[in-house]
Amino acid sequence: MNKLSLFASFLLIGSGLFAQNDPTIMTINDKKITKSEFLQIYLKNNPNPKYDKESLDEYMELFTKFKLKVAEAEASGYDTIPKLVRELDGYKKQLSLPYLIDSAQNETLIKEAYERTKTEIRASHILIKVSPNASSADTLKAYNRLLELKKRIESGEDFATVAAGKDGSEDPSVASNGGDLGFFTAFQMVYPFEEAAYTTPVGKISKPFRTRFGYHIVKVTDKREARGTITSAHIMVSVGKDADEATEKAANGKINEIYTLLEGGEAFEVLVARYSDDPSSNKKDGVLPAFGTGATTRMVPEFEEAAFSLTADGEFSKPIRTDYGFHIVKRISLQPVPSFEELKEGLAGKVSKDERSKTTQDSFVAKLKKEYGYKNQTKKTLKWFEDNIDSNYYRGNLDISKLKTNSALFVLDGKEFKQQDFAIFLKAAGRKSSEGTPKNVVAEQYSAWEKQEILAYEESKLADKYPAYKALITEYHDGILLYEIMSDKVWNHAMKDTTGLQEFYEKNKANYVWGERIDADVYECNSNEVAQQTLKLLGNDTLTPSALTKIINKDSELNVRHRNSKYELEKVNYLAGRTFKKGVNSAYEVDDKVYVVVVNEQLPSGQKAFNEAKGTITSDYQTYLEKEWIEELKAKHKVTINKEALYAVGK
Q1: Is 513-607 in CATH node 3.10.50?
Q2: Separation in Å, CA 334 to CA 265, 286, 291, 575
Q3: Is it true that 119-225 and 513-607 share their CATH fold?
Q4: Within 13 Å of residue 92, how many CA atoms lie on the same side as its CB?
Q5: Is pLDDT above 90 for 111?
Q6: Among 14, 27, 417, 454, which one is least packed by beta carbons within 10 Å?
């Protein structure tokens, strides 16, 4: 089970529910849970809330079980387990980001992102890889190498030829695309790359710029108005890009036959169900996740172009080829780029998680310095560090034991931030530092440390400043503990307790029985004529199922599909409610398909062996263990519910 999915339903959003009058709605042992905490979780799990007694009592039962498990985890010391402490600290860092930025500058970035979302850029690039902690010599070498490639292109050489040629781009995809990245929009590239692409005119080449991957140059080859977001469906005949000629020909023939049926009036959805090889969409009328401007889903260029070339909802394309096979694409709907107001909240979330958000932190730190009465005291206290930067530092071996003083480097809100703490930071940064003069190295690392410490200090105050943040941290804390204790007490315990699992099976055998089954070959035919041909060929005992299928599909790959398995009759829609004899059975029709079933063996209903039902037994045993455990927790922890406050939550 995914940890985040387990407790995501308990995450609360927004701060409007906090009020000065916040009565205690529940007490577990001595820990109070307020009305606001309960109400926010209740609303998160109930989009259309009911405040009647029955609904509130029902949800309070679930909420109590949740809080009992958390209380037990805390009583058992789960909140002190180092890996869980580290995990929560990681979430705190993520959740604090929206609070540690310059809101005015952040608003500018959000508006910039929206304007870019309305335009799509097509660009090619050349990459020379440079690691983030490369030496200044290696950095300069990469930069100069890129400049030489840029000069060659500006002198008339073809960009793609230079990019894919000897000593050209180090992007692995360059061999197949010549550096062409196709069209993209905001948030689909790292921010420095996006910035270069959107600020370089069409037909021009950017100056070299650096990302975490290395140095790049970008040539903008086209710019267009964003096409919006499209929802489409497809019929797919799967075939690999390296398929042999015969396989390729068969797949091409099959997709063209399907296309002919579509042109003849067959319903797209019916053909998806019959013939599409995409398991993620063939049970959903072929519908795929939306893609296009601003969408997280991207499609291969051939598919994208086919979809956006369709001019009306319901229109379908001619067959196209991608690396995954052949497709017929149908347009379901096209949505233009929404207004700024519609996108603002989503863009704000993306900006807060994106590299661009770091640009707002410097101005935010400056504001914090003013708010907290910052005092710089580095005039004399940095000299020891400048005097001790040598080759050992770059190997991570700075000897900080030689630092005998611990004077303040700066003061913030009356708190001193001292030399020893910076020394630990500086030593750890050694291996990642760029080479330079000792004074420059210390200045660079001190600036990073000071910013880090000021932001960390502000982060420590967020729970007091922002009730919504405090509540979020509580929910993540509870969720992490819940997942861990449930793993130990229920999920993993059930899988490891082989003796208990076996005993549970023995006591509940009646719940694990097979229905009537058959071991059979099933021929799914697209018409009664094909079914009759299949029946006729089944009279030839020398034909294998694959040979029979090949004969029938000689003129069309759509004629028949063969399957062999053990089927539980009542669990297969086209077998349910029917009686089959051993051997060849008469053809019959279900959902516009005609089936011929050859029963190799009849398997009567009976007891499932332990291994045959182990997955279901394990799941049921987990449910049993959790139920028993909850009863123990109710006896162990004192729970008091303030019914008056509970029934007043909607008032």
Answers
A1: yes
A2: 24, 16, 10, 40
A3: yes
A4: 18
A5: yes
A6: 14
Task: Name the pairing type of β-strands 209-211 and 214-225.
Answer: antiparallel
pLDDT digits (tens, 9 = 90+) for 536-554: 999 998 999 999 999 999 8
Residue 418 burial (CB count, 10 A): 16
Confirm if 479 and 3 have CB atoms less than 8 A apart: yes
pLDDT digits (tens, 9 = 90+) for 638-648: 999 999 999 98
Query: In whole angstroms, what is the distance from residue 44 CA to residue 382 CA?
Result: 51
**Residue 403 near residue 421 (C-beta atoms within 8 A):** no
Question: How far is Cα 190 from Cα 183, in angstroms, rounded to an integer?
Answer: 15
pTM, full prediction: 0.59
Cα(199)–Cα(483) distance, integer angstroms: 47
CATH class, domain 119-225, is alpha beta
Distances (CA, A) of 630 to 404, 424, 600, 637, 640: 56, 47, 49, 10, 16
Taken in order 438, 444, 447, 448, is the CA torsion positive or negative?
negative
DSSP symbols for 409-467: EEEETTEEEEHHHHHHHHHHHGGGPPP--HHHHHHHHHHHHHHHHHHHHHHHHHHHH-H
Q: In terms of Cα–Cα distance, which of 516, 506, 474, 476 is closest to 601?
A: 516
CA distances to 182, 189, 573 from 179, rounded to whole Å, are: 9, 14, 50
CATH, domain 229-335, list 3.40.190.10, 3.40.50.620, 3.10.50.40, 3.10.350.10? 3.10.50.40
Rg (the chain; Cα; Å): 33
| Total count of residues recorded for the chain | 651
Q: Is the pLDDT of residue 435 over 90?
A: no
Report how far residue 555's alpha carbon sits from residue 417's, in angstroms, rounded to the nearest whole number: 82
| Cα separation, 523 vs 563, whole angstroms | 7
Residue bearing tokens 């335009």: 119
CA distance 541 to 535: 12
The C-alpha atoms of residue 13 and residue 4 are separated, in whole angstroms, by 15
Q: Model confidence over 505-514: pLDDT tens digits? A: 999 999 999 9
Asked if pLDDT for residue 383 goes beyond 70, the answer is yes
Tell me which of 196-210, 463-477, 516-530 is least confident.
Answer: 463-477
In 105-213 the beta strands, taken as DSSP E runs, fall at 119-129, 180-184, 209-211
Asked if the model's pLDDT at residue 5 lies above 70, the reply is no
| Over residues 307-322, mean pLDDT | 96
Under DSSP, is residue 207 helix (H, G, I), strand (E, B) or coil?
coil
* pLDDT given for residue 88 in this prediction: 94
